[in-house]
Design a protein that fits this description.
Layout (H helix, E strand, L loop, with lengths): L3 E2 L10 H16 L7 E4 L5 E4 L1 H7 L4 H8 L2 H10 L5 E4 L6 E9 L5 E9 L5 E8 L2
Parallel strand pairs: 1-5, 3-7
Antiparallel strand pairs: 2-3, 4-5, 5-6, 6-7
Helix pairs in contact: 1-3
């Protein structure tokens, strides 16, 4: 399995408040670039937009401990989305037949592996960041 080596480290902090503050700072810098839905452009998808709002609602459905674990990789995930040209593991969503799930694998500067999952609607070609999590 090929993985993209990011130039970023995990976000600092041990409590949810610290990590969320750092993740929100990164998110707000992306959000400030547009008046509409926050997005980043992906090199793999030929500079198409990857929207970020769905991932925030997904993270806040999790337990506090899991939120911290996932949000620490937020900056690394954005770097992966922007710069990766490594082919993801793509498959049709078994729950929604009109969606494709792309799973990108990445590695931080400190050799920690993580996964970024992007959902693509087949009809509209809209791509949303769903989740970020460390690889076990």
């Amino acid at each position: 399995m090929d993985c993209f080596k990011t130039h970023k480290n995990k976000l600092a902090g041990s409590s949810f408040a610290e990590v969320c503050k750092n993740a929100k700072a990164v998110y707000n810098s992306v959000k400030a670039r547009t008046k509409r839905t926050p997005y980043v452009r992906s090199k793999y998808f030929r500079a198409e937009k990857i929207f970020l709002t769905l991932s925030w609602s997904h993270v806040f459905e999790k337990s506090e401990r899991d939120r911290v674990r996932r949000l620490k990789f937020f900056d690394c995930a954005l770097d992966l989305i922007r710069n990766s040209v490594v082919d993801p593991e793509s498959r049709e969503n078994f729950k929604q037949k009109n969606e494709i799930l792309h799973r990108f694998y990445g590695m931080t500067n400190s050799q920690e592996k993580f996964v970024v999952q992007i959902k693509e609607n087949k009809r509209s070609r809209r791509k949303d960041l769903i989740s970020i999590y460390p690889e076990n």
